[in-house]
């Protein structure tokens, strides 16, 4: 009998578990009908998959924004370039103003000056100040006299017989000084070459 009681207890426990499982998987409505409960193991967090039309709309929106951003960048750089061209020489011209002030002062003093040597010294000071200004901005004179003729920096305006054999092919005189800006020729030197 003892075994019958144990088997009855086991049956009761098994029936209770089945009932609990059934209640968990079904939901009762107000009118008593049973409906299967939603499976909680389904992923509720993932958004529904986009349709091809939605994907196309997203890509078109991204493309439109990218084109607008590029257009704004292009306009901004064009404006910056225009400003640079318009005001690029501001620093160069600003540094030139003290030299102009000295020239104006010299012109005023020429009217009343009686000493020519002091006037000459003043003009030489202005000239040296202007040459320093040019060198500060990368402009350098081309040294020509006594050097061999260089067609990349000089142009021969005359050819004369060389006074000595050593001066053949060399620059004897410089009529107009040439200048370079950071190594690039601004103006060729007009020279006389010995032959």
In brief, what are we looking at here?
With 195 residues, the chain is of the alpha+beta class.
Describe the structure.
The mean pLDDT is 81. The protein has helices at 2-25, 52-87, 90-112, 116-136, and strands spanning 26-28, 34-36, 139-141, 154-160, 171-176, 179-181, 184-187, 189-194. The chain is built from four helices and eight strands. The chain has a domain at 138-194: Head domain of nucleotide exchange factor GrpE (Nucleotide Exchange Factor Grpe, Chain A, domain 2, Roll). It is elongated. It holds the Pfam family GrpE. It is found in: Cytoplasm. GO terms for molecular function: adenyl-nucleotide exchange factor activity; protein homodimerization activity; protein-folding chaperone binding; unfolded protein binding.
CATH H-level superfamily title of the domain at 138-194: Head domain of nucleotide exchange factor GrpE
Judged by helices, strands and strand pairing, the structural class is: alpha+beta
Helicity range = 40-55%
Strand order of the largest sheet: 3-6-7
CATH class of the domain at 138-194: Mainly Beta
- Summarize model confidence as the mean pLDDT: 81
Work out the oligomeric state of the chains in this entry: single chain
Note the overall shape: elongated
CATH topology of the domain at 138-194: Nucleotide Exchange Factor Grpe, Chain A, domain 2
Strand content of the residues, in percent? 15-25%
Low-pLDDT segments, ≥5 res: none
String of helices and strands: HEEHHHEEEEEE
How far the N terminus sits from the C terminus, by CA atoms, comes to: 143 Å
Count of DSSP H/I helices: 4
Count of DSSP E strands? 8
Rounded radius of gyration (Å)? 48 Å
**Largest pleated sheet:** 3 strands, antiparallel
């Amino acid at each position: 009998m003892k075994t019958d009681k144990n088997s009855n207890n086991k049956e009761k426990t098994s029936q209770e578990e089945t009932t609990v499982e059934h209640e968990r998987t079904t939901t009762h409505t107000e009118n008593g009908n049973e409906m299967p409960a939603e499976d909680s193991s389904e992923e509720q967090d993932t958004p529904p998959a986009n349709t091809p039309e939605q994907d196309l709309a997203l890509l078109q929106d991204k493309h439109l924004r990218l084109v607008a951003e590029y257009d704004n960048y292009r306009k901004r750089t064009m404006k910056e370039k225009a400003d640079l061209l318009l005001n690029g020489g501001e620093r160069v011209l600003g540094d030139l103003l003290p030299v102009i002030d000295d020239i104006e002062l010299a012109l005023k003093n020429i009217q009343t000056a009686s000493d020519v040597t002091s006037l000459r010294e003043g003009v030489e000071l202005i000239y040296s100040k202007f040459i320093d200004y040019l060198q500060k901005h990368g402009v350098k004179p081309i040294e020509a006299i006594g050097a061999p003729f260089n067609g990349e920096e000089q142009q021969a305006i005359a050819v004369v017989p060389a006074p000595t054999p050593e001066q053949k092919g060399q620059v004897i005189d410089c009529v107009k000084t040439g200048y370079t800006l950071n190594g690039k020729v601004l103006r060729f030197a007009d020279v006389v070459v010995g032959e």
